[in-house]
Queue: 2 jobs
Job 1
Amino acid sequence: MKTTAVVGLGNMGIGMAKNLLQAGFPVIGYDLRADRRELLAEMGGKPADGLSDLAGTDAVFVMVMSGAQALDVVNGLKGLLDEGATIIVTATIAPVEMRAVDDALAGCKLNLIDSPVSGGKFGAEAGTLTMMVAAADEVFAANQDVLQAVGEQIFHVGASPGMGQTVKASLQALIGVTFVGIFESLAMGAKAGIKGETLYEVFGSTHVGNTPFFKNCAKLIMDRQFENTGSHIGTMYKDLGISLALARENGMSLFATSTAYELFQAGISLYPEGDNWSIVKFLEQISGTEVHW
């Protein structure tokens, strides 16, 4: 049985650690926050006081917030892990940052998997994440056990580091625009005098609305739950910035994604501790309405 580790025990990392434990893998976890390390211990994992405690582990998941943090972690790990160990970057970072991580491992006999994930807090806790894996064929095959412990839909999207992050950046453009469509359509219906319950039922009966994505989002809005639901607005704002940077690198203009990014900018300015649906409150404020049941 492989020994595993998770660096970054936030909502996503702690859920992944839980599923690794449930699959029978020993798990060591590190986070700068003592309360997150304590939470891992309560689940049956082994909290680490620093990266040095991860020496000898076979597979390390890196679930941090930024490319700079991911690079720092990888630089800290490369002198600790044994030959043949695998670093799995599940954080969402820019493709160019992922390639910098790969460059940092040049000359090391370590394996690298670029595998951002989608599914949010619920997917991490349920072990149903979608994983966009970029890795050499043999590395992908050798790590099916640990990948399947945390993910349900596992796609091998390429061999080169950065390809997984490229797929994720493209996906986040779709998700960001979809969020804005939900927010604006609900606010418009409410402003025009339609009950929230009616909007939820009608939208939810259509091929675009009969999805867990829409129904969860709309329910949280109408229940007026805008914080601590597992989808912090800062994360989506960061991800949309990555999407737009990728578009610029490729000489593209993303009109709808740019609008979504600006709305998330407004949302995070007004509600820095809020979740994604907080943007509805901004739309309500400028239109003089409220979306509720």
Job 2
Amino acid sequence: MITVMDGGMGRELIRRGAALRSGLWSAKAMIDSPRVVVDVHRDFIAAGARIITTNSYSCIPSYLGKTGEAHRYAELAGLSGQLAREAADGSAEPVLVAGSLPPLDESYRPDLVIDDSEARPIYASLAQALQPHVDLFLCETMSCIRESRNAAEAALAAGVVRSLPVYVSWTLDEEPGTGLRSGESIRDAHAALADLPLAGFLFNCTHSDAIEAGIEQISQLTDLPTGGYPNRFNVPKGFTLDGEISVQARADFETEQFVRATQRFIDRGASFVGGCCGIGPEDIAALAEHLSRAGTLAH
């Protein structure tokens, strides 16, 4: 059976006026509009998501430091867990909360991944703050092996008391079949984490064609669950949140195309599917309806 995840929190918060496309990004809502975060979670649940992800993606020192609030990163990550837990517990349907452990500098930029000595204590603090509120950890949008290992080790250590599952989700080069954004292959990435007791492997925030190829590759390397949640944007080389280069929306990825792409993920072996940046509740609702009609939707 297939489990539906939620969509892109950041873009949805921007659409509702609770976040900006630069600066603190989705963390702005944690400070100014936390109830809107709960509303977005609830809307994704109503659409059919049975895993929602904490709004901790930009609760990191590098973003919060722009307004002198870097010291609040663990506090705000913990709050993101509380808000997601509130939404999940208020649902009539069973809903799991995934604690997001994100890149600690910029997304899609393996060249900007911070040193291990700096990353490990930050990831440990984030995971500890999220741990009381979540059902699993999701190390997401990992652009290189080193980044994913640092996040995964912290999640495993924090989750050991409650035996929380830990999933790693890599972001891929936009060219299908070429591996992670770092240029490292999926085979090498899997091998580098093979000694860790992970629960599964996913791909996210990448062109759907690249994710489809990635799922096909990873399914040949592991019997663990796999999945994918694509974005709706083309990510140019050199992108940073506050830089001059901006992402461009794909004209060929409306709701129908998203649902079709997700079905191809499932055909390649995925059991977890959802959306990333730009994928809203209406897209998740269409996906859930499609899977329900097919009789493959987990409840």
